[in-house]
Amino acid sequence: MNRPISLLTFFLCFSALTGLVSCERETPVSPIQPATELPQTVGLDDEILVVASKKYTLVKHGTKTLAYTADGKVKKVTFSPGHYIDYTYEEGEFRRVFTKEYNDNKLDVATTYYIHRAQAAGGQTYEPTPPAGAYYKNYPDQCYLVSTEKYMHYKQGDEVIKTEHLYTYNDKGQLARMDLSNFQGTYYPNKRIDFAYNAAGDLTKATEYNAQNVKIRESTFEYTAFGDPILNDRNAFNPEELQVDPYVTVFGKYSKHLARGKKQEAFAPYSLLSNIYYQYAINGDGYVTKQDTYTLLNAQLILSTPFEYTVTFPRIVQ
Questions:
Q1: Which string of DSSP letters, residue by residue, matches 272-303?
Q2: Which PROSITE patterns match (predicted)?
């Protein structure tokens, strides 16, 4: 869908129609209105059933369908009948997330996320059990290493390409650096992505450097636009700058608000890769039901992503 209007005209219209365009209000997914108090009912043996507030579970994101385990973890993301990702989890002292991506029902990528041994950026060692008071003890979902095996399918057999990337965090438990040097090969200490945040704790920049410590690429995120209010992000997916599965959210507290714009630039030589903004439809409970992506230059719609949920009212026996 093209909108052939000038940038200035678009900005003026966008600002005047803030409530209608940038954050459209929709009918809530569930026809039942959210309860302002927790209603209680007396059950058998005088047990009290407390009906908790609504729980939203994302089951469709764009063209992808999500399925979950009984305890609420993602267990499968399906792109098409032959293209899907399976998720398994290892709990305990050494936590792990394992993903296996299949295409045409053949294993393409196997990834292991190593969790809960994060160290502050610049740290030298990793401790399997964080000491009492360690900052990252308060951020249990932190992945410090991602190990990937990519299977190249040839007639003569499969070739496996292995990579390992290290992730470190700042003293607020936010992802500070992704080490892009492949630990399976020659190590280049300067090859990395650095992450920066605003005062609200939202990711504002992801800056990539090559092995010679030269900035080669940068993504900049904006969270306000044309006077619109900042919007809470109730579905915190990993941004593509993390170079990981968006649904394996084990990388600290990198963002809690919806991004309104994103600019991607390349350097040496300079080029503007993309400059886009996002427009959301949000239901009465504050959940995104649609994200539209537009080019900033000519306000052209380039992608529309629907969000679908199941809504439940968990019961707790007291």
A1: EEEEEEEEEEE-TTS-EEEEEEEETTT--EEE
A2: PROKAR_LIPOPROTEIN
The mean pLDDT of 48-77, rounded to a whole number, is: 88
Straight-line distance from the first to the last Cα atom of the chain, in angstroms, rounded to the nearest whole number: 53
For the chain, what is the domain count? 1
pLDDT, tens only, 132-163: 555 455 555 688 889 999 999 888 878 999 99
Output the pLDDT for position 52: 59
On whether residue 201 sits in a domain, the answer given is yes
Q: What is the CATH number of the domain that holds 195?
A: 2.40.160
CA distance 8 to 11: 5
Question: For residue 227, what are its two tokens?
Answer: 């006077």
Q: Is residue 27 part of a domain?
A: no
Closest CA to 149 of 182, 189, 181, 105: 182
Residue 305: CA atoms inside 13 Å, Cβ hemisphere, count? 16
Read off φ and ψ for residue 178, nearest 5 degrees: -115, 120
